[in-house]
C-alpha cells in the first residue's frame, strides 16, 4: 500500500507542478487542484497507514492506540480541503475576470510575441 | 471560572471578526456607518493591544508570569489550541492597530467607494493578522494565514482594473502554491514529532532521534519557504513590487505589515525550535537566512535605484526592510546576541510605519501627473459605479493650504526614516543594529557581519538617491499645478509620522522594550515551559446536565 500511495502522491504532485508552470490560466488552476490533492494525500499518510481501524475511540477506559487510526491528520485534511476549495473558487473568479478584461487566457494578460 | 480580564487575549481576534460580520448586514452604500464601525473596531483593537503590551511587560525581565495564555475550548495544552501573548506578539498587535487606523481614515477620502465590501475585508484582514500573531499552534497558524490571505486577495483587487486583476492573479497563484508547501511542512512535522503545538515542538526537538532529525529539517525548510514567500525574500519576491504597486493606497499601506507576518513567524519558530533549545538542530537555517536576507537587501537597493515611479520604489523599500530583518534573524540564530535583534525589532517598527506612510503619500504626490487619479476614474468607470450616486461632488471635504510644503515635509520625514538618517527612528534602529553586530561576543564581527554593515550603509545611500530623485521631480521641478489634497488624506500620514517622532523621542523606552523582547526570544524554554504548564480552568459549578468540557475547537 505504501508504494501505491507514494506513487499516487508523486504522480499528482509532478503533474500539478508541470501544469502550474504552464502559461494558460486554466492549466494553472488545474495544476493547483492536482497539487492540493497530492498534499491532502500526503497529510493523510502522515497519520501512518492503517486498514480497517476506526479513528474514534470509546469514551471510557484505556485503549490500545495501535488498534485505532490517528484522527488528527483526518481533521487537518478536512480543514485543508475546505480552505483550498474556497480559495480555488476565488481564483477561478479572478481568472474569469482577467479573461474578460484582457481577452486572453495567458497568465500575463497578453500573448508572448 | 476564568477572570473576565483574562478573556482580553482573544479580543484582538473577536473584535474585527464581529465588526466585519456586522458590516455585511448593512447595504454597501452605507459606507459612513461601515467606516464608523471599522474605526471603532480599530480603536478598540489599539486599546486592547496596548493593555496586552503593558501586561506582557510584567515586572521582571521575563519570569514566566509575563506571558499570557488562553486555552480555546479549555482543552489541556498539547491537545487543544492555545493562544499565547508575549512581548513580541503584543508588539506586533500594537503595530497592526497603529497602522490600521490611519489606513481606514485615508480610505474615507474616496478609496472605499471604489468597490464593494472594502471595510468588511479590511476587518477580516485585521482578524487574520492578529490571529497569526497570537496563536501557539501550527495548524491554527495556517488557518489564520488563510483568513488574512483571503482578505488580502479581495483587498488587492479592490478598485478592479486590468492592472490589479493581473497583479492579483499572480499574487493569488503564488500564495496558493505557498500554502500547499505550508501544509506539507506542517503535516511532516506532525508525522515526525506527533505534535502541532509550537511549545511542545520546542521541548521535543532536542530529544529527536538522528534518523528523524533530517525529516524535521526538511519539514522546517518547506515551512520556511512558505513564510519566506510572504516575507518577500530575494529569489521568491518577484511578485511583490507589482502586487504592492497595484494595490489601492490604504491597502498597500496595510500590506506593509503583511511581509512582517512572515518575518514574525520565522523569528518566532526558528528561535523556539532551532534556538538554544534545539540540541543538535540548533542554528539550522541560520546561514540561509543570513545569505538570502542580504541578497534581498541587495536586490531591493538595486530596485530602488532602478525604479522610475514612487510606487515601485516604495515596494522595493519594503524588500530592503524585510531583507534586513531576515538577515538579522539569521545572525541571531547563529548566536549573534540579543542587542542586535533588539535594534532590528526597533528598526522594523519604524520602517513599517514609514513605508505605510509612504504608500499613503504616493497617490496625492502623483496626482497632478494624472497617474493614479486617471486610473481611479477609469476603474470607477469600468466598475460601473454610478457617478450620480457616489461621486456627485468628488473630493468633498477640506482641502489643505500649503499643499506642496506639507507633502514635502511628510515625504522628507519618510525619507529620513527609510534611509536611516538622523534624527528620526531609522537612524536609531540602524545604529542599534550596528552596535549589536560590532559588539557581538566582545570580539570583532565575522566577515558576514562586516558585509552586512556595508550592505546596510549602501542601502541607505541608495534609498537617499532614489527618494531624493523623486522628491526633486515632484516638488521642485513640477510645472506649477498644485494638486488638491484633502485633509482626510494628509492627516493619516501626519499621524503616522507623529508616531515615528514619538518613537524617536521615547527611543530609550522602546529600545528597552525591544531589548527585553530579544532576550526573551533567546530563552525559548520560558515560552515552552509557560505554555506546557498552563492549567486548565476549573469549570464553574455546573447545572446537573451541564457539559463542562465544552465543544471541540
From TrEMBL, chain A:
It is found in: Cell membrane. It is a multi-pass membrane protein. The keyword Nuclease does not apply. The chain crosses the membrane at residues 6-21, 28-47, 75-98. InterPro entries: CPA3_antiporter_subunitC, NUOK/Mnh_C1-like. Its main location: membrane. The keyword Cell membrane applies. Belongs to the CPA3 antiporters (TC 2.A.63) subunit C family. This is Na+/H+ antiporter subunit C.
From TrEMBL, chain B:
Residues 136-443 form the NADH:quinone oxidoreductase/Mrp antiporter transmembrane domain. It is found in: Cell membrane; Membrane. It holds the Pfam family Proton_antipo_M. The keyword Phosphoprotein does not apply. Keywords: Cell membrane, Membrane, Transmembrane, Transmembrane helix. It comes from the Bacteria. It is a multi-pass membrane protein. Coiled coil: none annotated. InterPro entries: CPA3_Na-H_Antiporter_D, ND/Mrp_TM. The chain crosses the membrane at residues 6-26, 35-55, 67-85, 92-111, 141-159, 171-193, 214-233, 239-258, 288-305, 317-338, 344-362, 405-428, 449-472, 484-503. Belongs to the CPA3 antiporters (TC 2.A.63) subunit D family. NDH-1 shuttles electrons from NADH, via FMN and iron-sulfur (Fe-S) centers, to quinones in the respiratory chain. The immediate electron acceptor for the enzyme in this species is believed to be ubiquinone. Couples the redox reaction to proton translocation (for every two electrons transferred, four hydrogen ions are translocated across the cytoplasmic membrane), and thus conserves the redox energy in a proton gradient. This is Monovalent cation/H+ antiporter subunit D. It comes from Ruixingdingia sedimenti. The lineage of its organism: Bacteria, Pseudomonadati, Pseudomonadota, Alphaproteobacteria, Rhodobacterales.
